[in-house]
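Case 364 in the screening queue. Each case pairs one protein sequence with one candidate compound; here the compound is nicotinamide-adenine-dinucleotide. For every case the pipeline is the same: read the inputs, emit a complex structure as tokens, and attach any notable structural observations.

Predict complex for case 364.
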Amino acid sequence: MRTVKVALGARSYDVLISDGLICGAARHLRPFARDGRLLVVSDEVVWRLLGEQLQAGLGEIAAVPILVAPGEGSKSWEGLRFVLDQLVDHGVERSDHIVAFGGGVVGDLAGFATAVVNRGCGFIQVPTTLLAQVDSSVGGKTAINVSAGKNLVGAFHQPSLVLIDPGVLNSLDPRQVRAGYAEIAKYALIEDAALFDWLENHAPAVLAGDRDARAHAIAAAVAGKARIVEEDERETSGRRALLNLGHTFGHALEAETGYSDRLLHGEAVALGCVLAFDFSADRGICPADDAARVRSHFESVGLPTRLGALDLAGKGARLAAQMQRDKKREGGRTAFILARRIGEAFVDRQVDLEDVAAFLDRAS
Ligand SMILES: NC(=O)c1ccc[n+]([C@@H]2O[C@H](COP(=O)([O-])OP(=O)(O)OC[C@H]3O[C@@H](n4cnc5c(N)ncnc54)[C@H](O)[C@@H]3O)[C@@H](O)[C@H]2O)c1
Ligand SMILES: [Zn+2]
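Case 364 output:
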């Protein structure tokens, strides 16, 4: 068992990482059950695939499922209202802990619902996608999407415990696994050059489901996120913005491809990291060799690294316009995360979007 502590004073919690963890879930979740039961928010696909396994792991504790439809559409006002109504109908109390069992959609939705129901109750993350295991389940950001944009209504609400069982990833689509992997590589690129070296040698094992390699990579990524969140829980000092490496470019790519299956979030992050390093090299901030290494790593694991492959070559102006839209929403302070080298990212708030557009027009 690997344990990563997220040290946030009174809001501190442990992230436990171990294969088969949900089969022994009772050991960790018993203290949170009331009247012999636990409310579990999940999606229909996750519950169909893994619900029995969780219930078996809970032993005599009854899991009471609250199920939403799979997919981003559930992170909505309707999804929130449904979960809140269910929680209230089940008589949830402030001292209760609800289990979020699923990918980032379930974690964000259940996290936000528990931030506001009864003015807040506790929750436990049991993430079932690689993206949720290395990113969304840790750090306390919860949200739903509204018509003006993604994640615009939400709350900071830390879980009380995170249980990561890499074994549940065996049923996950390999494309989703690769997309989650992009966020692991992202942490390495931000501040852990040694992890990037390790990933260059072990990425195939991580992706193929090798137990040790996978648990090591997940723990390293979670520890990286925990360090940054500990320093800047609510993204006030700017340090937490580093976690957006690859995301300013990535969000523009996702918006241009219509947030569709054409480009998953993690795939956009991979290409976004490549562009952030290329842009840094273009400006003379970062060695070209490092940028080339980043591209060839993502290429070697089958993640997208070229705008042309998405029919987005030569569309610099359109992509920059998408970033401009983000910028307006954030009060004109769009932060670009650039890099001095692999493992040394920094926040730059002075980047001129015209420079970005010109760079993207030259990129292939
Ligand atoms: N809060 C944060 O800090 C944070 C960070 C990153 C992303 N997010 C959010 O996370 C969401 C994306 O999360 P996601 O990529 O996990 O998507 P998701 O939750 O939609 O899961 C992807 C698909 O995989 C299925 N699935 C989940 N676990 C499975 C398993 N073990 N086996 C088979 N199928 C499984 C789900 O049913 C779903 O259809 C986005 O809404 C994003 O905004 C939040
Ligand atoms: Zn992300």
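Case 364 observations:
- Residues 135, 183, 247, 265, 269 surround zinc ion (ligand 2) (CB under 6 Å).
- The longest strand covers residues 149-156.
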